[in-house]
């Protein structure tokens, strides 16, 4: 047993000392130890202890039962951090995702139930001792992902480990040991038993936790995970892009890498944007029937996929509206009415996100910043100028609303939408007409003519 001087926050040693002074062996475990040994930011620290949950709650003034049925108690530190403290556990029976566990007496038993050797290392906060019964430190040095024990058994205990293994390999650029890889690939056929929430959480960890998510997601493709969990996205593999060397899937991976890690919603839009393209590509090459607008199809399929993964309504709306607006910049727009109409359809609030997507995509497609970007730069200037001009771009910007129509003697109904839509078209062409008195005159004229507002 070696020693390693890691540098956890002070509250880790404080909590460990409180438990140890009460007679309960306590170790720091998990990803924080792995990352610290790799010289990376450690993230959240977790403790494993021989103390039962009720004892942990009695030793600390402020606790939260974050997962008390599994032995986990959240200890609220003086710094305001919630430190998770979990009683040593061992598996009694497993079901591919769920397990029956019981409390154990030793940290060695607790480590033996963990997924990969690099995650089965414990460090003692008070003595700096390292406990590494499965050779995790060696695998860290050799940059290898290997299961603790038989890989087939380890994956069958919890198929979420398939996704975790790929994420660790992609994030740290580690190789997956051969037997572990073979068992992982064989286990992809069972991924359907995972809850949608767990699948979504893993995807978001990839998109928000890695500067280059292409590493993990390319492994999704070659392992069979992509086809098992995201068949709509998997269809992009081998789909040729017109006048481009890489296929749509490769382009999607590069695009996600080009987008900022702190903006996972943009990466989601890039991940899903191609789900409407394969049939469109066939149409262009004369191999399939006429198709609907690929952006509309991509929006519909992305929405269905995101609902399946239990994304929130707000997240679905944001991502699908970005997809509908298009990852190809509408550089063909020239006149101001056309620009205002595009902003009206696409929601001006999305412009900063779309600008990031367009610039990232343009850099991939042109490789060099030069004259090829001039149309995009000009477009962005035009769009921003219209947004800041005060011109009415949303239906809520209209100087006339339903109450005004009622005051003119109209009854609520389908005609309201028709008239308001007509007024919106009018002010998109001529923003200076967006005054209540002028729009009232327009409506009165339409009513006198028997028109519904169509133009």
* Morphology: elongated
Which architecture of the domain at 2-136 per CATH? Answer: 2-Layer Sandwich
Name of the top-level CATH class of the domain at 2-136: Alpha Beta
Beginning-to-end CA distance, first to last residue:
82 Å
Number of strands: 12
**Which secondary-structure class do the elements indicate?**
alpha+beta
Rounded Rg: 28 Å
Fraction of residues in β-strands: 5-15%
Number of continuous helical runs: 23
Biggest sheet features: 8 strands, mixed
- Summarize the amount of helix as a percent range: 40-55%
Question: How do the strands of the widest beta sheet line up side by side?
Answer: 1-10-9-2-3-6-5-4
**Stretches where pLDDT falls below 50 for ≥5 residues?**
280-290
Give the averaged pLDDT, no decimals: 90
CATH overall fold name of the domain at 2-136: Beta Polymerase, domain 2
Describe the 3D structure.
The protein has 455 residues and is of the alpha+beta class. Among the domains are: 135 residues, Beta Polymerase, domain 2; 55 residues. Helices cover 52% and strands 10% of the residues. It is built from 23 helices and twelve strands. The protein has an eight-stranded mixed β-sheet. A hairpin with a 4-residue loop joins strand 4 and strand 5. Helix 6 packs parallel to helix 8, helix 16 runs antiparallel to helix 17 and helix 18 crosses helix 20. The longest helix has 16 residues. The radius of gyration is 28 Å and the shape is elongated.
């Amino acid at each position: 047993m070696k020693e390693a001087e890691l540098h956890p926050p002070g509250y880790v040693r404080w909590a460990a000392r409180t438990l140890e002074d009460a007679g309960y062996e306590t170790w720091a475990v998990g990803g924080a130890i792995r990352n610290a040994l790799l010289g990376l930011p450690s993230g959240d620290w977790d403790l494993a202890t021989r103390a039962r949950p009720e004892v942990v709650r009695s030793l600390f003034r402020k606790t939260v039962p974050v997962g008390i049925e599994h032995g986990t108690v959240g200890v609220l530190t003086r710094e305001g951090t919630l430190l998770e403290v979990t009683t040593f556990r061992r598996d009694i029976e497993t079901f591919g995702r769920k397990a029956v566990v019981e409390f154990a007496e030793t940290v060695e038993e607790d480590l033996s139930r963990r997924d990969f050797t690099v995650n089965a290392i414990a460090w003692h906060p008070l003595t700096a001792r390292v406990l590494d019964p499965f050779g995790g430190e060696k695998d860290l040095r050799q940059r290898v992902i290997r299961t603790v024990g038989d890989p087939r058994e380890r994956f069958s205990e919890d198929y979420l480990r398939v996704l975790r293994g790929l994420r660790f390999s992609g994030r740290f650029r580690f190789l997956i040991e051969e037997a572990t890889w073979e068992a992982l690939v064989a286990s992809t056929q069972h991924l359907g038993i995972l809850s949608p929430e767990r699948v979504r959480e893993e995807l978001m960890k990839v998109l928000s936790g890695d500067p280059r998510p292409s590493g993990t997601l390319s492994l999704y493709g070659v392992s069979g995970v992509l086809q098992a969990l995201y068949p709509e996205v998997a269809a992009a593999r081998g789909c040729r892009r017109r006048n481009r060397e890489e296929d749509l899937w490769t382009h999607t991976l590069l695009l996600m890498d080009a987008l900022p890690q702190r903006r996972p919603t943009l990466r989601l839009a890039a991940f899903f944007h191609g789900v409407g393209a394969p049939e469109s590509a066939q149409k262009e090459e004369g191999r399939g029937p006429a198709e609907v607008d690929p952006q509309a199809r991509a929006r519909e399929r992305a929405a269905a996929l995101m609902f399946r993964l239990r994304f929130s309504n707000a997240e679905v709306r944001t991502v699908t509206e970005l997809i509908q607006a298009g990852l190809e910049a509408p550089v063909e727009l020239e006149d101001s009415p056309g620009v205002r109409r595009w902003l009206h359809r696409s929601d001006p609030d999305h412009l900063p996100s779309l600008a990031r997507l367009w610039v990232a995509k343009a850099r991939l497609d042109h490789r060099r910043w030069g004259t090829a970007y001039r149309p995009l730069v000009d477009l962005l200037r035009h769009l921003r100028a219209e947004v800041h001009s005060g011109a009415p771009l949303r239906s809520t910007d209209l100087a006339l609303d339903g109450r005004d129509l009622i005051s003119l003697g109209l009854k609520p109904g389908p005609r309201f939408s028709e008239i308001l839509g007509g007024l919106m078209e009018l002010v998109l062409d001529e923003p200076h007409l967006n005054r209540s008195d002028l729009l009232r005159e327009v409506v009165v004229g339409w009513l006198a003519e028997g028109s519904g507002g169509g133009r």
